[in-house]
Design goal:
Layout lengths: L3 H8 L6 E4 L6 E3 L2 H11 L6 H15 L14 H5 L5 H12 L9 H10 L4 E3 L3 H10 L3 E6 L6 H6 L8 E4 H4 L6 H11 L6 E5 L2 H4 L7 E4 L13 H5 L5
Parallel strand pairs: 1-4, 1-6, 4-5, 6-7
Antiparallel strand pairs: 2-3
Length: 244
């Protein structure tokens, strides 16, 4: 899929009317896994020292963490929820709390508390370039939508970060009923913005995001980056014909 990126660059030498952004891995990243465990345990009234939290975090990430690598194994009883996790909010929660519950712990209710960190803006960290990039596009009159394969509402996160006024629309898979790389979710986002796909740029971090090419959009795929660090998001501005 990455071979489409040079083509995308050629097609966006003139300013675009709209930019679509992926959420996780593009605009924001989940919190450090050790902090994730410690904060979740604290919500259940337990303090866990860093050494123990590190061991537990490694096991939980291997079992399957939203925003982390794919699980090592999906138990048969969670297969249906896993396959539809980005289409239904109840399946998203059931899949990830179920995976967390496969890890033995003496903290009662930890699996639910871990999932609740996803729903809390404090459990995420926007990338260093996120606000500046969104603000520059907004001030230039370029429409912005967030397009995400996700099973919960991320609008409150943007509101908590003071970025909600910089995003014009959200095309979330569990609301739209389609997941990337299905062209339908990208076309839905363009429709929300009133934008022509041929003058729209999709920015993400995976081959699924590059699927926007099949909807007629250009695509920019960014490299992976640690939470809070610059991830090349500013390159969007040059492709959109804006200056920082």
């Amino acid at each position: 899929m990455v071979q489409h990126v040079p083509e995308a660059a050629e097609r966006t030498q003139t300013p675009v009317d709209a930019v679509l952004f992926d959420f996780h891995g593009t605009l924001a990243q989940v919190e450090d896994s050790v902090r994730w465990v410690q904060r979740a345990a604290l919500a259940r009234g337990r303090e866990i020292d860093k050494a123990r939290a590190t061991v537990l975090a490694d096991r939980l990430v291997t079992a399957g963490r939203a925003g982390g690598p794919l699980p090592h194994r999906v138990p048969p009883h969670l297969a249906d929820h896993w396959s539809s996790r980005d289409l239904y909010a109840e399946s998203h929660r059931a899949a990830y709390t179920g995976l967390a519950a496969t890890v033995a712990t003496d903290v009662d209710g930890l699996a639910d508390a871990l999932y609740d960190r996803l729903l809390d803006p404090d459990g995420w960290l926007p990338y260093a370039d996120t606000e500046a990039t969104l603000r520059t596009l907004h001030e230039a009159g370029v429409k912005v939508a967030v397009v995400s394969n996700i099973g919960f509402d991320i609008r409150p996160h943007f509101a908590a970060w003071g970025l909600d006024g910089l995003v014009d629309a959200f095309a979330l898979s569990y609301e739209v009923g389609r997941t990337k790389p299905d062209p339908a979710i990208f076309l839905r986002a363009c429709g929300m913005l009133g934008a022509d796909p041929e003058r729209t740029l999709m920015v993400g971090d995976s081959p699924a995001d590059a699927g926007a090419v099949q909807a007629g959009c250009a695509a920019l795929v960014l490299p992976a980056a640690e939470p809070g660090r610059p991830n090349g998001l500013g390159a969007t501005l040059a492709l959109a014909g804006c200056s920082a």
